[in-house]
Design a protein that fits this description.
CATH class: Mainly Beta
Strand order of the largest sheet: 3-2-1-4-5
Number of domains: 1
Mean pLDDT: 94
CATH superfamily: Nucleic acid-binding proteins
Protein name: Small subunit ribosomal protein S1
Number of helices: 1
Order of helices and strands: HEEEEE
Keywords: Ribonucleoprotein, Ribosomal protein
GO molecular function: nucleic acid binding
Organism: Asanoa hainanensis
Helix content: 10-25%
Shape: globular
Low-confidence stretches: none
Distance between the termini: 24 Å
Number of strands: 5
Length: 78
């Protein structure tokens, strides 16, 4: 998903590292999953999760890192 300026600005204005929210698992890959919060997708590393993530699931997550220059963020289980 390509992140628009407006979507990214809204994300960083609303969330900070440590925020706990619910995200939608939009895709699963061998090394993790992509979780959508608002209109932005972040990465959930597989090694952080006690059980496999499934596409379509809504999961509680903690925002672990935000990289504003790359417009990326990572989440861990909440």
């Amino acid at each position: 998903m390509s992140v628009t300026d407006a979507a990214w600005s809204a994300f960083v204005a609303r969330y900070a590292v440590g925020s706990v929210v619910h995200g939608d698992v939009v895709s699963v890959v061998p090394f993790g999953a992509f979780v959508r919060i608002g209109e932005v997708d972040g990465f959930a590393p597989l090694r952080e999760w006690p059980a496999p993530l499934e596409e379509g699931a809504i999961v509680p997550v903690r925002i672990a890192a935000i990289d504003p220059d790359a417009r990326r963020f990572a989440v861990h289980p909440a």
